[in-house]
Amino acid sequence: MHISILSSSIRTGRKSHNIALYFQHFLNENRLATVEILDLASYNFPLFESPLKYQPNPSRIALEFKSKIVASDGIIIVTPEYNGSIPASLKNAIDLLYEEWQGKPIAFSTASSGDFGGLQAITHLQFIFWKIGALCVSKNFPVSKVQEKFDEFGLPIDPQEMDEFAQIFIDNFLKCVEVSQK
């Protein structure tokens, strides 16, 4: 099973990327899947004027991103909540593709520096992916006060608490991925 973790923040000093690193470690250490982080900060996409399939000369990097999404058995999207929603970088990457998201199991992890862990961003993502026809996983992984929960390497400050929470989230996600493959 191959899982992609989409790290959506491109801001300097981003904290949500630490959660993506954490999930990469968690999945690898528990030998649950092969895993790859698709870091939107390293893709440096321009604002797209049209979906990839309508672009006459798509960039190599956009085609690479598409192939990685297609090759993924499931995707974990890790995003901060900005002003009650998702970052423009994530919406841009979502809108680049369409058919590639359809039927794909997608789980959401959100982060905020406040008390609510990005719950409004989860709502927006669920609606966007529902409209596209992706399989939105019911369990989410919101992280409030993210700056207090992980270091810059993705190591949790309280590993026991975080691993217990992650195990429930990942178990639910992987069951959805398995069902989608039947």
Automatic annotation (TrEMBL):
InterPro entries: Flavoprotein-like_sf, FMN_Rdtase-like_dom, NAD(P)H-dep_reductase. Residues 1-145 form the NADPH-dependent FMN reductase-like domain. GO terms for cellular component: cytosol. It holds the Pfam family FMN_red. Gene3D superfamilies: 3.40.50.360. This is NAD(P)H-dependent oxidoreductase. PANTHER family: CHROMATE REDUCTASE (PTHR30543), NAD(P)H-DEPENDENT FMN REDUCTASE LOT6 (PTHR30543:SF21). It comes from the Bacteria. One of its GO terms (molecular function) is FMN binding. The lineage of its organism: Bacteria, Pseudomonadati, Bacteroidota, Flavobacteriia, Flavobacteriales.
